[in-house]
Amino acid sequence: MRGRKPKPTEMKVLQGTFRKDRANPHEPKPEGVLRQAPKHLTAEQAQLWDEAIAQAPAGMLKPNDWSVLAVWVVAAHTHMVAAEKVRTMGQLVKAPSGYPIQNPYLSSMNKQASIMMKAASELGFTPVARSRVVLAQELSKDDPWAEVAAL
Questions:
Q1: Cα Rg for the chain, rounded, in angstroms?
Q2: What share of the chain is helix, strand, coil (3-state, %, to 5)?
Q3: Cβ contacts of residue 121 below 8 Å, gap of 6+?
Q4: How far is Cα 81 from Cα 62, in angstroms, rounded to an integer?
Q5: Cα separation of 6 and 10, whole Å?
């Protein structure tokens, strides 16, 4: 590995840290906006998809980001189902031999949480990623330094 993963240009623009002299002139620039949920998602997963789209900064998610968002949505839904099973059954269950064992849904829940965090960091959904994003329309009109900060 060559160090830290580079930030997407869109994220740099939103954060106000974009520098044209350091930009990749041959970087692909996807067109459009991500909207429709894939047909393979269940109704509950499609609802999570719509909520994620609504909460993401406007224009940040592009159509070619669909697969990462789909991974996040499926992992989030599976995590919620597993968490409900752990809540109702408990963290320990009785094995066929009679001894208590860890609830299998608990390891599934933890695995889905890991997948969700990886996909969320790729999409800019984590609290750290959100804290670094400054949207241009959020700059105060009353602040005399707002125009300078936008540059």
A1: 20
A2: 55, 5, 40
A3: 129
A4: 28
A5: 12
**Tens digit of pLDDT for each residue in 76-99?**
999 999 999 999 999 999 999 999
Residue type, 41: L
The residue whose two tokens read 């989030």 is 76
Amino acid identity at 2: R
Show the tokens assigned to 57.
Answer: 């900064």
Task: Identify whether the C-beta of residue 49 lies closer than 8 Å to the C-beta of residue 63.
Answer: no
pTM, full prediction: 0.71
The end-to-end CA distance of the chain, in Å, is 33
pLDDT band for position 146 (cuts 50, 70, 90): low
DSSP 8: P
Listed in sequence order, the DSSP H helices in the chain are 9-15, 43-55, 66-89, 104-123, 127-132, 146-150
